[in-house]
Amino acid sequence: MEAPIRTTCAYCGVGCGIVATRTGARSVTIAADPDHPANLGRLCSKGTHLGETVRLDGRLLHPMIGKRRASWDKALDLVARRFRRAIAEHGPDSVAFYVSGQLLTEDYYVANKLMKGFIGSANIDTNSRLCMSSAVAGHMRAFGEDVVPASYDDLDAADLFVLVGSNTAWCHPVVYQRIRARCAAGAKMVVIDPRRTETAEEADLHLAIRPGSDVALFKALLAYCRENGLIDEAYLARSVHVPDDFWAEVGEGSDLWSAARTCDVPPTDLRRFLELFAAHPRTVTLFSQGVNQSVRGTDQVNAILNLHLATGRIGKPGAAPFSITGQPNAMGGREVGGLASTLASHMGFEPESVATVSQFWAAPNMACKPGLKAVDLFRAVGEGRIKALWIMATNPAVSMPDAGEVRAALAACPFVVVSDVIADTDTGRFAHVRLPAAAWGEKDGTVTNSERRISRQRALFALPGETKPDWWIVKEVGSRMGWRTHFAYDHPAEIFREHARLSTYRNHGRRLFALPGLSAIGNQAYDALEPFRWGGDAFADGRFSTADGKARLVPVAQRALPGPLAAWPMTLNTGRYRDHWHTMTRTGLSARLARHREEPLVEVHPEDAAALGLADGAIARVATPQGESLFRVSLSEGQRRGELFVPIHWTDRTATGGRTGLLPRPLVDPQSGQPGFKLTPASITPADIQWKGFLLAADRVERPDCLWATRIQVPAGEVYELAGIGDPARVEAVLPKGERIEVIDTARGARRIAVLREGRLVAALFVTRDGLLPSREWLIAQLGETAAAPAVLAGGPAGPREDPGPIVCVCFDVGIKTIVGAIATQQLTSVDAVGAALSAGTNCGSCRPAIRRLIDDARKIANA
Ligand SMILES: Nc1nc2c(c(=O)[nH]1)N[C@H]1C(S)=C(S)[C@@H](COP(=O)(O)OP(=O)(O)OC[C@H]3O[C@@H](n4cnc5c(=O)[nH]c(N)nc54)[C@H](O)[C@@H]3O)O[C@H]1N2
Ligand SMILES: Nc1nc2c(c(=O)[nH]1)N[C@H]1C(S)=C(S)[C@@H](COP(=O)(O)OP(=O)(O)OC[C@H]3O[C@@H](n4cnc5c(=O)[nH]c(N)nc54)[C@H](O)[C@@H]3O)O[C@H]1N2
Ligand code: SF4
Ligand SMILES: [Mo]
């Protein structure tokens, strides 16, 4: 067995340490790193199943020009030439990069340097604009620098957790486990989210506020603190600048009753929140997309920061506002200045900073003003103002708001380059040149997690095919554009050293972000670098990064919340599932992760559904002024009336429906430029379906051509769920060649087709107009096996079979029916008891909230 390698998880901003042990050329076992301070031996379902995503199928392994394979030399020369030509003809602002919080710091640094120092434009923006730019803007306004004033140790010291717009149980599961451990020791947890998420299910108090009413809530809390002597006047006097009319303005309309009305929560619940806050000075407020992704995101962030500053709950153990970051290197991107509105090393575009960076880089064409932010950037592409665009490590054709317009813009752009690890992505389809990037498990470099901790990602495998690290690809283009000596890097450590040097260059303690002592780190020491935090206990001394050293309270106002529009009576909320990562290019490869949610659902309150004629499990059309898409209806008491929730994960590659990106408005927060993904006027109507079915295939097949087709990975192939109108025979076109055995029952409109090759089952198609479909479980297990055709066509061997229901525990494949059955028959009353009986929840723990809920439900039914 090979020596284990310590690295960092590929996914979220928790930044868990992993111990990876290679077991073959492209296989690896994954364990949690017990010594990594971010996770101390824990991993969630996504981290646990990383090993299933390192296979090479679907990978982009060679540079491609159009549909043709090309050499690196040809592809890189073409990219350099087209960018040079656009700049020569139309100036530096006619080109742009759109990059990602999933790049490593070293990749990010080089891309930013090339655009801002050498091309001479700041038209480099990142998907972090869609993710936490409101937090960045809020931090800058309050602290004078984008610094997250919290650490995971604060979670172990807090007495109260306020989770705002964060489905922590699903999106930051390991942080969540740490919070729950503290709650088991007596801490309280309040969740502020319009939806009753799995996180909210476990809260001591859940405030299902009206979407977009967070400012009113936090102002009411601040007013209450002021009335009840909870303001830390000494702290304010010493460390915080308070604008003249600040308190007068806070008082207005912030009484309990008005706020309860604005937020649409029971006044008694609101009072309980105020009292919990008053009783627990050690408060950590964690917030993410429910706060950031709003057209008032920056004000919402500052409403939270105001509260912590005014009560002095910052810079002390267990007391902090905590913006938890989404992507693995969202924070590293901020450090290198990957946003169009920032420069490198936490500097901005003030003339002095521009001069500092320009001199440090010996930059010939330093950008002097901010560039286009993501939404404006793609608008400029659509208007023909961008002649050459390079997209790295992000899938904007799916993830941008009003993605239909983004697609039109990409289609019209004269030159699009896409660097990705996957060959076929929705965005890649618009590329003139596709560049094969090294993936997680092949790359070497650093990432920074939510708590400012820098960790190494280390290569586990040799670079497959002709793939190259992103930093290498960018520096090659920089060299070919004429700046060879400035981009002469051979090892990521060289880039890291330069980044560290810039962080202290003419800093004089003005910026907290600094990596002293690392500017001369040797390659070996870099390879062995242990996880460490920069900035230490930021702001513990009550000094901030502003000119006078004081933080700022920022006046913020609750905007008016208009009622439903006649044509668009619903509001659409969008977000994440527990076991999928964004556009599923990687989690979609894992059969286990696919089990938790197999299709894109639209969650609807049962009373709304009844009024709108929507049945549970039916297909419905969700429309907004921007576009429409189909989803499967899921009735949910956890939805507020009038609101819909859909996931962001499905793409053209995986489904005909579930195309969430087409729906949101491209409206942004005026300070941060972050889109308001969480609130879009929408409508929902049942879709007419005449038949339903499913297709199993051992090898990748074209997506069947019908109204509804959603793909999921299964161990020996893939499955499509299908539904449509008209003649279902059309979908047979995608069946692979082989010996075809079929049963057709015209009376019931049923067709069953099995395709065998050398006796093995390679595909099966089941369709029915009004009958039942067999359970998929047994059939899935037959894929690739020598199958008895009659049994396959019967949907399984004779005799009763157990259906485990939707999978809750993906580590041990335990379904909801199995768990509910065991709770009832064995009278299990705790998550641990379920674990002892079925193993469910005993590995990564991501499903423990779900199991707890099933136990609670059983108790409620028993008590009813
Ligand atoms: N499983 C999984 N984990 C992930 C990711 C993933 O794709 N999958 N992605 C990572 C990334 S990049 C990010 S940014 C994070 C995101 O992590 P989260 O922010 O936790 O995830 P979301 O589901 O986008 O949204 C959070 C919640 O905001 C709520 N919300 C909507 N409107 C409002 C509002 O007006 N006020 C309040 N208070 N809440 C509101 C939504 O109902 C939703 O439950 O997750 C990271 N972790
Ligand atoms: N409606 C709605 N839209 C949203 C959101 C929402 O809540 N609602 N959330 C927004 C947020 S917070 C985020 S972060 C975005 C995420 O949206 P995206 O960034 O578009 O999503 P990903 O699927 O993570 O895209 C990453 C791409 O990079 C590729 N990749 C992976 N590793 C590497 C690498 O090392 N190098 C290169 N070159 N490529 C790599 C992957 O294959 C994939 O194609 O979505 C945003 N869009
Ligand atoms: S919480 Fe899960 S997805 Fe996030 S870093 Fe840890 S293991 Fe990875
Ligand atoms: Mo994100």
What is the element layout, followed by pairings?
Elements (H helix, E strand, L loop, with lengths): L4 E4 L8 E8 L2 E6 L12 H4 L15 E2 L2 E2 L2 H19 L4 E5 L5 H15 L4 E3 L6 H11 L8 H6 L2 E5 L3 H4 L1 H12 L3 E5 L5 H4 L3 E3 L6 H14 L5 H7 E2 L4 H6 L4 H8 L3 H13 L3 E5 L1 H4 L4 H14 L9 E4 L6 H7 L14 H11 L12 H9 L5 E5 L3 H4 L3 H10 L3 E5 L12 E4 L8 E4 L4 E5 L12 H14 L8 H13 L18 H5 L4 E2 L17 E2 L17 E6 L15 H4 L6 E4 L1 H7 L6 E5 L4 E8 L7 E5 L32 E7 L4 E7 L10 E7 L2 E8 L14 E7 L4 E8 L2 E9 L7 H7 L6 H6 L12 E3 L4 E2 H10 L5 H8 L9 H16 L1
Parallel strand pairs: 6-7, 6-14, 8-9, 8-12, 9-10, 11-20, 12-13, 14-15, 15-16, 21-25, 22-24
Antiparallel strand pairs: 1-2, 2-3, 4-5, 4-16, 17-18, 18-19, 21-26, 22-25, 23-24, 23-26, 27-29, 27-32, 28-29, 30-31, 31-32, 33-34
Helix pairs in contact: 2-21, 3-16, 3-21, 3-22, 4-15, 9-12, 9-13, 9-15, 18-20, 28-30
Iron/sulfur cluster binds next to α1 and α7.
InterPro entries: Asp_de-COase-like_dom_sf, BFD-like_2Fe2S-bd_dom, BFD-like_2Fe2S-bd_dom_sf, CT_Nitrate-R-NapA-like, MoPterin_dinucl-bd_dom, Mopterin_OxRdtase, Mopterin_OxRdtase_4Fe-4S_dom, Prok_molybdopt-oxidoreductase
Pfam families: Fer2_BFD, Molybdop_Fe4S4, Molybdopterin, Molydop_binding
Protein name: Nitrate reductase
